[in-house]
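User: Some background: our group keeps a shared notebook of sequences we're curious about, and every so often someone picks one and asks for a predicted structure to add to the entry. Today it's my turn. The entry only has the sequence so far, pasted here. Could you supply the structure so I can complete it?
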Amino acid sequence: MIVERERQVVSQRGILVAGLVLTALYVAGLMWLAGLGSYNFFIACLIAPVLVAISLPALAREARREGDRTLFWILVGALLVKLVASLVRYYIDFVYYHGVADAAGYYGKGLALSEQFRAGVFHLNLHTFTGSSTFTYLISAAVLTIIGPSKLGGFLVFSWLGFWGLFFFYRAFVIAVPEGRRRQYAALTFFMPTLLFWPSEIGKEAWMMLSLGLAAYGAAVALARSPWRGLLASALGLWLASLVRPHMAAMLVLAMAVGFLVRKPKSELRQLAPVVKGLGLALVGILAFVLVRKASAFLAQAGVTVGGGLTHAVDQLVARTGGGGSGFEPSILTSPIHAPIDIVTVLYRPLLFEANSITSLAAALEGSFLLVLTVVRFRWIIAAARSVRRQPYVAVALAYTIMFLIAFSVFANYGTLVRERSQLLPLFFVLLCVPPPKLRSEE
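Assistant: Of course. Here's the predicted structure to add to the notebook entry:
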């Protein structure tokens, strides 16, 4: 017993010494960067540990909620990897591509607005920031007003926001898919390269990941626990998403309507079920109507009009998204005959033989992995589809996936598809993580 205590004391002292050494090295590094006058990297090094520190209590609470100590370290590892991914994204945007990236525009215009805010000028000349990116400029400005002119610091903050979107998707799965494999869903959602890379820069992807994740979490709570509390969370997430990409919010709210339609009423509330379902569907219908109108206005602002009919609108989208080194001729999902090639295109392409650069090769490796995983787990997808009455959140995931496949089959650029795919994968992974009954019985 005495020997064991002495070992624990030695171990604690070792941890303390290691912590002090790392702290000293960290402070020395900050002082060195400050001496070099590199505010960009100085602030990034200052922000990263702060973001981790303020995240730890929530991650620890989730591990306690599930009674799984290992989960805490998985979540911490996921957060650290996500922040490192923002460094990789920064390098690719500003070193590999020499600043020819959307993030540079969001940073530049956000910085101009943040300088106004710091000077106490809050009169916004937003007419100078035309297009659908206006709200993203404001988000960038809000972040840069707090942290100062640091591109890398901004990347870290946006990546952190994207992480919490993934966390909300994970919470939704845990709450609403009791038959699912949590660890496998966590591995796919937190560590898939697309979800690490794309929502990790100053831009729309991180904000959309946070917003859609919050909306999905609300849907899970509404379908599995408390309808009104969940719908309030979903409404907030959908509203935040609609400020940037209303068409994505519209698809998710329509998928939520499917979930409410297939949801089995609780036995103790069976008599009130029609009333509750009717009120819930009415609210979802109102949200859908508003968001569909907003999505139509968004497309019109982007130069895509639907007045000439669906075919005309599709032709416009193909023309706008095609071209460049990643362009291709899409097979638009207008009939069941086109379904196989369109599913492969939206979910998995570019494939290995289609890669023509380092970045497209990375996307092709991931797409090939997903294709193999989907084939191997085809029975799992069938099992998930059969569980929609017991687990209506799965119906939300299935409906959203189908709508996404139809909507994005008109896109004619691999780069655009890979980036937009990040808004699908957390819900598509739900279908890959519900085992067939035989496997569930063997657990």
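Suggested note for the entry: Residues 38-100+150-441 form one domain. The CA atoms of residues 31 and 37 lie 10 Å apart.
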